[in-house]
Design brief:
The strands form two sheets. A three-stranded mixed beta sheet has the order 1-5-4, with helices on both faces. Strand 2, helix 3 and strand 3 form a beta-alpha-beta unit. It is built from five helices and five strands.
Amino acid sequence: MDPVDRDTIAFAKRADAARIPLIGLCTDSFILAEAGLMTKHETCVSWLHYKEFRERFPDLAVRSDRIFNLDRQRGSCAGGSSAADIAAVLVLRYISREAERNALEVLQIEKARSAGDIQPGALCTMTMKTSA
């Protein structure tokens, strides 16, 4: 993964300064980490990107055993269809069950998965947490 440009990092930092919750979908979690915005948060990445994330950010807590993670003002997900799952949880949490059902129906998803659902392929890696 290529380094992130300074404008993107500055934008993410301005959003954080404005207390806007940030979510990294798939490799966007690398952007949040590069900006220093995942230091006190646990990051979820795809098992395909786990090793690279650990190498680039060895001091950050990261996991690849679940499809997404919501940690206070930060969220992150493995990417792919897990983006729809994290969105469904947020719609349910902040709007309503009916809005969640409608969104899932539009996406032709029968039922959203939870943060505890395991990533396909996650058995290939181990969850590793470090103290931050």
